[in-house]
């Protein structure tokens, strides 16, 4: 079957909302053909513990449950070491260490995530550290991502880049270099929005972000949160971890999940 990137340019219609399909294969097919564009994710009794060769096991997550509906923006809040990133990595399929005991269930539109073969094709993960080429411009970074991740004619890939630039309000800085310690470049907020854009190029339904406000001042961090809220408003399911939100941000989040010591 085709992946979303194969069908991205040929889709004609998109039904709003998602259908509750009984069969995981049908969910794979529907999502691949972009017959529904929204994803509900829920998790029940997630338990993760270390599995040492010697000594006793340490529990990292203990019976954690939750859910996010399409169009919702969930923030997972907790101090360092609370288990936020471990939960995010487990939900997104990035926790692949063999030295961990894992338990619990993740459901996508009511079906077990383990049965879905194409989960990674409709989910995106934005890392805490923005890893981009310092000498490329914002537009060049997005074009590189489009060429890497999308199939179809060059013109359609560039059209998708234009859409992302508009959607994430990157118009003014699109020709500015990303920059770094030795290269003058874009602002922290522009850099973070570019990093988000690199992952949004495939138009994922489900977006995970690991502490996207790290290193940003309060005003810029709030601006990035507003951008994520807008994405959720278009039907995407947004899940992020956050360490120290300012007071303005609490009005932006749809849901807040508090974590402490793995619970």
From TrEMBL:
Keywords, ordered alphabetically: ATP-binding, Membrane, Nucleotide-binding, Transmembrane, Transmembrane helix, Transport
Name of this chain's protein: ABC transporter domain-containing protein
Its membrane topology: Multi-pass membrane protein
SMART domains: AAA
Cellular location(s): Membrane
Parts forming coiled coils: none
Transport listed as a keyword: yes
UniProt-listed PANTHER family: ABC TRANSPORTER G FAMILY MEMBER 28, PROTEIN SCARLET
GO cellular component, one term: membrane
Classification via CDD domains: ABCG_EPDR
UniProt domain ABC transporter: residue ranges: 46-263
InterPro entries, per database record: AAA+_ATPase, ABC_transporter-like_ATP-bd, ABCG_transporters, P-loop_NTPase
Molecular function (Gene Ontology), one example: ATPase-coupled transmembrane transporter activity
Keyword Nucleotide-binding (UniProt): yes
């Amino acid at each position: 079957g085709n992946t979303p990137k194969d069908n991205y340019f040929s889709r004609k219609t998109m039904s709003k909302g998602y259908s509750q399909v009984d069969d995981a294969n049908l969910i794979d097919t529907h999502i691949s053909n972009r017959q529904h564009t929204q994803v509900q994710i829920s998790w029940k009794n997630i338990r993760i513990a270390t599995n040492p060769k010697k000594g006793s096991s340490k529990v990292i997550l203990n019976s954690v449950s939750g859910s996010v509906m399409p169009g919702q923006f969930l923030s997972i809040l907790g101090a360092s070491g609370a288990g936020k990133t471990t939960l995010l990595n487990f939900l997104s399929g990035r926790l692949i260490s063999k030295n961990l005991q894992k338990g619990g269930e993740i459901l996508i539109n009511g079906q077990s995530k383990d049965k879905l073969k194409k989960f990674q094709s409709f989910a995106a993960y934005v890392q805490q550290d923005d890893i981009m080429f310092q000498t490329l411009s914002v537009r060049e970074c997005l074009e590189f991502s489009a060429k890497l991740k999308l199939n179809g004619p060059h013109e359609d890939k560039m059209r998708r880049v234009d859409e992302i630039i508009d959607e994430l309000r990157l118009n003014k800085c699109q020709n500015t270099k990303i920059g770094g310690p030795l290269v003058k470049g874009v602002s922290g907020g522009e850099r973070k929005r570019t990093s988000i854009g690199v992952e949004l190029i495939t138009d994922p339904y489900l977006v995970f972000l690991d502490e996207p406000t790290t290193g940003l001042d309060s005003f810029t961090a709030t601006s990035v949160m507003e951008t994520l809220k807008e994405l959720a408003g278009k039907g995407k399911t947004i899940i992020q971890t956050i360490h120290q939100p300012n007071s303005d941000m609490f009005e932006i989040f749809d849901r807040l999940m508090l974590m402490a010591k793995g619970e």
